[in-house]
Amino acid sequence: MDATQLIAAGTIACVAGVVRGITGFGGAMVMTPPLALLFGPRFAIPAVLLLESLAAMPMLLHVRHLVRWRAIGPLLAAACATVPLGGYVLVTADPLTLRRAIALIVILFSLLLLRGWRHHGTHRLGTSLGIGALSGGMIGATGIGGPPVVLYLLSGPDRIEVTRANLTVYVVGTAIAAIVMLRLKGILELPALLVGTGLAPGYYAGVVLGSRLFPRFSDTRFRQFTLLLLMLVSTGILLA
Questions:
Q1: pLDDT of 88-106, one tens digit each?
Q2: Can you give the C-alpha Rg of the chain in angstroms?
């Protein structure tokens, strides 16, 4: 790993933090495709999971009283159960194929979010378990599992503060489960941890900056810009 890669990775982490701070989501979607291109999926995904868990942990202390466990519990339980299945894909899949799959996932969910798609059914237990299982498998394989749960929870009756709290619990819980899975499978190597730790200051700085910039932006317009940027970057990585 040379200095150019480290500078590029630090810039990516900072931009991802800004996006996370302004929009409240999208850190992993911004980071994972370009970091997978720089370092490969098996190196990038643990670093992204570490950053996402570290970023969400302090938020959890502030929003824990808003969490609706009956809503988030089944999603989290199902996701944690299927994270190892995704980890098997991460271990066995061809890195190029997996990198392109990550890019495709980002493009797909960016399109859905741009179109304002929401889940319009009721939040039944079976639906929650199915979406949680899908998300957990995606997290284990690609490091990106939040979008299905985001789309699902945004369709519910909860206030945005409650939804944000539920998502914070979900991000922390699934990231920890994925990190444990990677450790048990021998994928969580010291270099990836060092990279994640080294990128943390830039990511945190981006989150703080994004949070301060949030009042200056139209949330809807910025989300549209961010999602279009994600699609452009992911398309380039898909064709690389």
A1: 888 888 877 887 887 888 7
A2: 16
Burial class (CB in 10 A: 0-12, 13-18, 19+), 115: exposed
Each residue's pLDDT tens digit, 32-86: 888 988 888 878 888 888 888 877 777 778 788 889 998 899 999 999 999 999 8
At 84, give phi and psi (nearest 5°): -60, -30
3-state secondary structure of 25: coil
Question: How buried is residue 94: exposed, middle or buried, by Cβ count under 10 Å (0-12/13-18/19+)?
Answer: exposed
**Residue showing tokens 């996402």:** 52
Tell me the residue length of the chain: 240
Question: 9, 199 in Cβ contact below 8 A?
Answer: yes
Per the CB < 8 A criterion, the answer to whether 74 and 123 are in contact is: no
Nearest to 139 by CA among 204, 207, 183, 88: 88
The tens digit of pLDDT for each residue in 162-187 reads 887 888 888 888 988 988 888 888 87
Residue written as token pair 């830039």? 202
Model pTM above 0.70? yes
Count the neighbouring beta carbons within 10 Å of the beta carbon of residue 66.
16
The domains of the chain are located at 3-239
